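Subject: for your reference before the review

Hello V.,

The reviewers asked for a structural picture of the protein, and I figured it would be easier to keep everything in one thread rather than splitting it across files. Below is the amino acid sequence we used in the manuscript, unchanged from the supplementary table.
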Amino acid sequence: MAPESAVVSDAFINSADGTRLAYRAWPVAGARITFAVVHGLGEHSGRYEWFARGMSQFQMATYAVDLRGHGKSDGQRGHVDSWSQWVEDAAVFVAHVESEAEGEVVPLGHSFGGCAILTTVLSGKLKHARRFVVSSPALKLKVRVPAWKANLGIVASKIAPRLAMDNGVDPRMVSRIPEVVEAYRTDLLVHSKISSRLYDEWMHASAENLERASEIKVPFLILAGSADPLIDPAGSEELHRRSPAVSELHILDGRYHEPFNDIDSEEVFTLLADWLRR
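And here is what came back from the structure prediction:
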């Protein structure tokens, strides 16, 4: 693997409504591809260092944002007033990366971030993106949510939108590598919160992304683990069925929720690099 690239941490930009967003960058001199990564629920940009190092061996750079309510960004943990706030966060972040990168910028969204990137594309807010990537996009849950909790989230979204609930993510779901699981469990910037409003907004956004998938005109790659215990790969399969002309699907055998942080991640890095070389 290539030497670890330099890390620029604790940099900030402002979203469309002035909310301060943190981001990290792993620059690579002369990179022709730069990823603009949007993370999943409860995590943060710092967890993409291994991804950045993996892609740096292909001369590809990485930036990763902390969405509002996550990492070092402002906002209540695990809360948005509306899904459009994450869409604006993603759009502003990608535009910022485009202003700094020399080559092509490829948006990449993981899990809830994948759902946010899909909405951003469908909203026409990624005007310069030639292609994008979604990893384990949160379109269908595999982990079972108790009926009382799901109903509470929907009702509370209207009367107590900031009500915080546990997001139900067991660290053992993210990877088969014990060190990754332990790092997730002990990471002080990882949280287990989801507000009633965010839950309700996500359910509507995920359903709309599937319903409107045929409208996507930008080529994109879908990565999903066949053994993901958190997000059902059936959602990725449906996304591909509804957008066959522009999407390419890879169901990764045996992988858990985070294909970039799981066993045989090098194969995933190579797959991604090969797709981008076309």
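For the response letter, the relevant points are probably these. The longest strand covers residues 8-14. The helical segments are 49-56, 83-100, 112-122, 147-159, 178-186, 196-211, 233-242, 265-276.

Happy to draft the paragraph if you're swamped.

O.
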